[in-house]
């Protein structure tokens, strides 16, 4: 309980349940429905206590069914930090001056899949939606990496979803960064080389207009590839890779902090091994 002034009268108010975080702040996870005015009083009293204790950042996680409580928190000075399908996270900074709380995630991660068979044909698709819809442009399979998914696994999954082709991940050939893309977020695009393990294409009906194995020279001859600087640079990388004069970054499994899982370090292990000879 904490004493707060309510309508010129000091009252005893129950505090919000909280746990300390690792950075001198507190975390509140709401789970029970309550009256908006009651929550506002509890929040005000809790902030007073946290301030007296020298706490710094305050995080309040509000499940979607209690979203009506967010209004009271915003009125108290909280701001929206991020939202997920089932909750909203609010943040507050108690000390005076600029806060040092970490920002929300700033980047999305996507892959571009370069898959070539032993006939020097590349796996390409035409999309039903997006900026290339209706343009007739053939492009490599692309897609976003899911939360908790490794880049190598995401590349294999995207190729399978769009074309039904099974693949083996070889390496990351290159990556680039773009800005102001999906909801103003930046994007990291990883160009991945994969080896085909099957060859019969079945296009994804919901997103893919067409898919095929295209001769490499036909792909390169497309006007967009010839005019677009990034595409031309990637073609040079693919050619150098074919000539074995360029080496990318294969995934090397490492121990993970999560039991039973692996993480991956992507690096040029070929040059590293040769440097140790």
UniProtKB/TrEMBL annotation:
Nudix hydrolase domain boundaries? 104-238
Looking at the keywords, is Hydrolase present? Answer: yes
Keywords per UniProt: Hydrolase
- Pfam families tied to this protein: NUDIX (PF00293), Nudix_hydro (PF18290)
Q: Which SUPFAM superfamilies match?
A: Nudix
Entry similarity comment: Belongs to the Nudix hydrolase family.
Per its record, how is this protein called by name? Nudix hydrolase domain-containing protein
């Amino acid at each position: 309980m904490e004493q707060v002034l309510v309508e010129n009268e000091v009252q005893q108010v129950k505090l919000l349940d909280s746990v300390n975080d690792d950075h001198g702040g507190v975390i509140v996870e709401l789970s029970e429905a309550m009256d908006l005015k009651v929550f506002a009083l509890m929040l005000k009293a809790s902030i007073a206590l946290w301030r007296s204790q020298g706490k710094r950042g305050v995080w309040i996680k509000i499940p979607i069914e209690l979203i009506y409580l967010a209004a009271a928190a915003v009125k108290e000075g909280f701001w929206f930090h991020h939202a997920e399908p089932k909750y909203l996270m609010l943040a507050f900074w108690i000390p005076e001056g600029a806060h040092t709380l970490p920002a929300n995630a700033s980047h999305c991660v996507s892959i571009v899949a370069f898959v070539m068979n032993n006939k020097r044909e590349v796996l390409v698709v035409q999309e039903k939606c997006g900026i290339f819809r209706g343009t007739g442009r053939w492009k490599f399979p692309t897609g976003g990496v899911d939360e908790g998914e490794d880049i190598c696994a995401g590349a294999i999954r995207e190729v399978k979803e769009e074309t039904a082709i099974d693949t083996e991940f070889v390496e990351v050939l290159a990556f680039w960064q773009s800005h102001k893309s999906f909801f103003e977020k930046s994007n990291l695009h990883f160009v991945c080389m994969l080896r085909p393990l099957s060859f019969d294409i079945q296009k994804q009906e919901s997103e893919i207009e067409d898919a095929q194995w295209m001769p490499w020279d036909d792909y390169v001859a497309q006007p967009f590839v010839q005019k677009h600087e990034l595409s031309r640079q990637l073609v040079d990388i693919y050619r150098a890779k074919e000539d074995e004069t360029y080496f990318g970054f294969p995934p090397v499994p490492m121990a993970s902090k999560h039991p039973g899982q692996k993480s991956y370090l992507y690096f040029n292990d070929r040059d590293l091994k040769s440097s140790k000879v």
